[in-house]
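Technical note accompanying the year-one report. For the benefit of new consortium partners, we illustrate the data format agreed upon in the data management plan: each record pairs a sequence with a structure-token string. No post-processing was applied to the example shown here.
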Amino acid sequence: MPALEYGNGPAIAELQLFANVAGTQEPEYGPSAIQSVAKQAETTPYTELKPQDLRWEAMESTCVETQTFYLMAEDGHIGMTQVIYNNVASYSVKSATNEASIVNLTITRTAPGFQVGTNGKSFFGTDPEHPWGSMRHAFWPRCDVQGSIITKNGEINFKGRALFIHALQGMKPHHAAAKWKFCNFQSPTYAAVLMEFTTPPSYGSTVVNVGGVAQEGEIVCAGAANAGQHSQITSDPDNNWPEPGAVKFTWSGKTPNGEHVQAELEGSLGPRLDRVDVLAQVPAIVKTLVGGVVGTRPYIYQYAPKQKLELKLQVGDREVVEEGTLFSEAVFIS
């Protein structure tokens, strides 16, 4: 299908409204219908977070908003705690506690938080002045963790480090992104985070990448000039998704003092920790309908290589290589 031009305003509006209500695939608006946060980053690579930047937006329109801590314990355990606000069809909010997982954690930010550009947002819509969707990520790249999580198998001491992300998908998730790459790397000195999504063809399969490198007390660099690459691909026989066997993540930017920064992390992922079939709990007929009509087959692949990987960091004329722990996700939606 050819991309719809601005002159087709009524047609775009009707098709887009139907897609919003029914959740079906959107028409092809073309890459001009996404205003990537990378445009903001051309003049403002990042801004440090203020308390108001972490307030919940709790949109009344379709959205998924989360605040997540990714935990890395000194003894090797990896965990995640998440609060989620999900509004896809109604305005009711349900909350429950899980007695099989009792959380008692104290998490302290040890480096400034950041968002790429001035507000961290990419906008979707053929009229930039009146977007119909958005995507935003805000980061605390480096945190200290004290405390534990009690599971049915016993208590896990999570003394270690954490990454915090406040994320907002201000539209139906499968309309905003077709696939994702995620990197959380923590070493004794540094933290490196990267979040990359690729839009569906309706927005030109546009790639948006945000992330940065931090150390205790300061941001080394942050912005949109990063990249994620999967290699050693194998086809998952259960769903034909291209499961990665190795990754390469790169960051490029400048320190607050104007020194050029280049960072690279590359290595084998090893056996996956988990493969999450997002629709596993829905009835088979609904799952088939979603895959056939809406065009989504969402799976999350999670990795934490047992071997330490090296972050290669160059700041001006100084070079540093430091081993650390990687947690990575590859997400395929449509």
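Partners are asked to follow this layout when depositing records. The chain is about 10% helix and 50% strand.
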